[in-house]
Structures are given as C-alpha cells and as structure tokens.
Amino acid sequence: MLATSNEKDLRPTLSLLWLFAILNMVFRDIHEFTMASTLNEILSENINGNPMSETVLLFGAFAVELLLLGFLLTALLPPRASRTLNLVLVPVAVAGMLYIPPADPDDIFFAVVQLCAFAAAFALTWRWQPVQHSNSYVRASHAG
After folding, report:
1. Cβ proximity of 38 and 90 under 8 Å
2. What is the pLDDT of residue 137?
3. Is 91 in contact with 66 (CB distance < 8 Å)?
4. How far apart are CA 21 and CA 12, in angstroms?
5. 103-134 pLDDT, tens per residue?
6. Entry pTM
7. Rounded to whole angstroms, how far apart are CA atoms 89 and 68?
8. Radius of gyration over every alpha carbon of the chain, rounded to an integer in angstroms
9. What is the pLDDT of residue 30?
10. How far is the C-alpha of 17 from the C-alpha of 1, rounded, in Å?
11. For residue 70, which of 84, 55, 49 has the smallest C-alpha distance?
12. First to last CA, the chain
C-alpha cells in the first residue's frame, strides 16, 4: 500500500516508485530486444528514425544515471532534500521519457505504467511536508 502524505517519511515509498519505473524501463528494453526489427535498427545505428552516435549514447547514459540517482538519493537524503530532489527530478525523468514518444502498443503500455509511477511519486511528494525537528526536541528525545 502506498504511504499517504500524512505519514512522516515518504522516502521508502518514493524510492520504491523510482525502482518500479526503472524496472519497467529495463523490461521494456528487454522486450524490445526480442524483436528482429529492433536488432536491425541497432545494427543500422538508426533507432526510431534517430541516428545513434557516441554523443546520443552519452546522453542516454546520463539519463539512466539520473533515474538511478533518483532511486538512491530519495532513500539516502534527509527528508526535505529528498522532497526537493523529487520535485525537480520527476519532471525531468518524464520529459526525458517522452523525448522520443512511444511508437507501438507495447511501448505505449510501458510508457503509461511509467507515467503512472512518476505521477504518483510527484503527487505524494507535492503533498508531503517533512517533519522538521528543532535541535532541542532531538536532544530531549535522545536524553530520555
């Protein structure tokens, strides 16, 4: 069950949503590699009508790293920083995902699932107000 915005720490839930979106991307790619047409496009260095180059591959690697950082840093950063990261990185991830729109029904299916995961992450993050503790409260709670 997804955590609600009333709970104190949404980092585990948001991190799992990132992981879910990343796994959907990976399995979509694996699914595509089973088709001869995809393999022919890769061999021709022209995918979905876009020429492939070392620069394009570098940008793709950068995009993948952003997704992986979204998963990792959401869990590791303090709550307020995690919230800020998600408010910035989720729209970037969606924009990157839609840069080359899905072309066939199975790609559209995976894209819709990923968009739902990112929309849930953004909505939860938007409503999330991380609890801010004062230093005296933290000291008092550890003293007793």
Report:
1. no
2. 44
3. no
4. 14
5. 788 889 999 999 999 999 999 999 999 886 54
6. 0.76
7. 11
8. 19
9. 78
10. 12
11. 84
12. 33
Q: Helix H segments across the chain? A: 11-33, 36-44, 54-76, 79-98, 105-127, 135-143
At which residue do the structure tokens 């969606």 appear?
94
Task: Return the number of other C-beta atoms located less than 10 Å from residue 15's C-beta.
Answer: 20
Structure tokens at 92: 């970037």
Tokens of 34: 């089973």
Contact 114, 25 (CB under 8 A): yes
Q: Which two tokens stand for residue 120?
A: 């849930």
Q: What one-letter code names the amino acid at 51?
A: P
Token digits of residue 85: 């990261």
Q: Is the pLDDT of residue 81 over 60?
A: yes
